[in-house]
Write a structure and sequence with these properties.
This protein has 482 residues and is an alpha+beta fold. It has 15 helices and 15 strands. The chain folds into 3 domains: 281 residues, no CATH class; 113 residues, no CATH class; 58 residues, Orthogonal Bundle (Arc Repressor Mutant, subunit A). The chain is elongated and about 100 Å long. The model has no long low-confidence stretch (mean pLDDT 94). It binds adenosine-5'-diphosphate and magnesium ion. The site of magnesium ion has 3 residues, from loops.
């Protein structure tokens, strides 16, 4: 697609994020909510809404929603109301979804996002509890669509943002922020590849300086950070082209096709009144007391922002490193396990943020898929601290740790990487080298300082690079001047 005169236009984006809550059981029944079990074995008569059944709200799901509300400084409603949202779809055979319309459990709040070195506040309109539908599987059979109802009744928290985002990159930054909040809170595993976190992106454009919003389209069910960026990017370009050719944007629901990297029209936009919402007759309004909210607040775990600050002050690392080390819950646990077992945490942090993450990135893996464990790194850093290995040797060990199933000790032995820092041993070698090179020694003494490097080189050659350079320097300085 040709590049439109994009500097004329401003994009406006709001996200609706669906977070699957990590409860043991469904939101209104006691059936388990595991991922990946045999199809159609995990939906009970309640999840399927058979006649005569009664839903019972899962207390854990409420607690998780309140936790989220507290962590974004939102108002928590005193009286949450559930509503039926009526529509039929093959993966929703009961014909309605229990959701919330008025009086959602979490009201207005906000989060700060990092953007181009600055911070920006993004408003959150609401977050409500609802049940998930089943899943349509289109690629299992050639001429049928299969339905798996296991997911029916899985608790979701839908988090709706204000239209405060102004670019695809801001949208990704916001989505990452929500991902990190819910995973640090432990209310979701956040696994986007399994659908635990997915979002709808609402996109419109307007002339720069214009106050009124343009017509928006809604791109459904995006399940990766990369696709959010690409889908929005595509949609902004498409809309700009439409508007510049003098046509209007049709308010509609679109689908993002990641194979073709384009959005396609699915259906015209539905409105709240299309769903004939009414209060769920089988569930009474849920009262949430201020004492309850207080008790949840007191139990809130440390959030990413607090962790970033604490790492800086506890471990004397800089903010950049701290942010990277808190970029995910796994990363932060990984780092703290190491921080608790080594002496020089600052150096350990530099190695993790630098060489270790470089290996992960090079192999396109995230921390939970790392071939190198925190125990491996603790071993490595201890060897460095005790001067048993040099920095280049540590780099080499990292490479081997990634590629082979060996321990740090085994690699040091196998590759002969043990560093000689024993002074007596090094002194012997140095004396021998000085004796063997009387000419250079004399030149050095008569002022040719550059020859110092020559002697360091000789020692390194003699020890096959395993001499501790600090100790070598010290001894050489002394002995060469004799
Ligand atoms: P609906 O429930 O019909 O999808 P909402 O009013 O709840 O509509 O809005 C859903 C999302 O759309 C919110 O995240 C909101 O910020 C966003 N949004 C609303 N208007 C616009 C607009 N003109 N451009 C972009 N996003 C918008
Ligand atoms: Mg919507």
């Amino acid at each position: 697609m040709s590049n439109p005169k994009s500097n004329l236009w401003e994009s406006v984006i709001g996200l609706e994020i669906h977070v699957q809550l990590a409860t043991q059981s469904k939101i209104f029944s006691s059936s388990p909510s595991k991922f990946g079990v045999e199809q159609n074995t995990q939906a009970s008569i309640i999840d399927l809404g058979l006649p005569g059944v009664l839903p019972v709200i899962n207390k854990k799901a409420i607690e998780m929603a309140v936790k989220f509300g507290c962590s974004i400084n939102a108002e928590i409603t005193e009286k949450a109301i559930f509503a039926r949202k009526n529509y039929f779809y093959p993966d929703l055979p009961k014909g309605y979804q229990i959701s919330q319309l008025d009086n959602p459990i979490v009201g207005k709040g906000s989060v700060m996002i990092d953007f181009e070195g600055d911070e920006k506040e993004i408003g959150i309109t609401r977050a409500h509890l609802e049940e998930d539908a089943g899943k349509s599987i289109h690629d299992k059979y050639k001429s049928f669509t299969a339905i798996d109802l296991n997911r029916a009744g899985t608790p979701l928290l839908e988090i709706v943002s204000e239209p405060d985002l102004r670019s695809s990159k801001e949208a990704v930054s916001y989505l990452k922020k929500i991902h990190s909040i819910v995973t640090f809170l432990g209310i979701s595993d956040g696994d986007m590849s399994q659908g635990s976190l997915r979002c709808d992106a609402n996109v419109s454009i307007r002339k720069k300086g214009e106050e009124k919003f343009g017509n928006r389209t809604e791109i459904k069910n995006i399940n990766s950070f990369k696709f959010v960026e690409k889908a929005i990017e595509y949609e902004i370009k498409r809309q700009t082209k439409v508007v510049e050719s003098g046509e209007e944007i049709i308010q509609e629901t679109r689908l993002y096709d990641s194979n073709k990297n384009e959005t396609r029209s699915m259906r015209s936009k539905e409105h709240a009144n299309d769903y004939r919402y009414f209060p769920e007759p089988d569930l009474i309004p849920l009262k949430i007391s201020s004492e309850y909210i207080q008790s949840v607040k007191e139990k809130l775990p440390e959030l990413p922002e607090q962790k970033i600050k604490r790492f800086c002050s506890n471990y004397l690392i800089n903010e950049y490193e701290s942010k990277i080390l808190n970029s995910s819950k796994e990363m932060s646990v990984f780092f703290e396990t190491i921080a608790k077992s080594v002496k020089d945490v600052k150096t350990a942090a530099k190695w993790i943020v630098g060489d270790f993450l470089a290996i992960l990135n090079k192999n396109n893996k995230n921390i939970s898929e790392s071939n190198i464990s925190s125990e491996d790194l603790i071993d490595l850093f201890k060897n460095l601290e005790e001067n048993k290995i040099s920095n280049p040797a540590a780099k080499k060990i990292l490479e081997v740790l990634w590629n082979q199933d060996l321990t740090v000790q085994e690699i040091i032995k196998k590759e002969n990487l043990e560093q000689i820092s024993n002074e007596d041993e090094l002194l012997k070698i140095i004396m021998k080298i000085i004796e063997e090179n009387p000419k250079q020694h004399n030149q050095y003494k008569s002022g040719k300082d550059k020859l110092f490097g020559f002697f360091v080189g000789q020692v390194m050659k003699e020890t096959k690079g395993s001499a501790d350079p600090k100790v070598v320097n010290e001894i050489l300085r002394k002995e060469l001047n004799q």
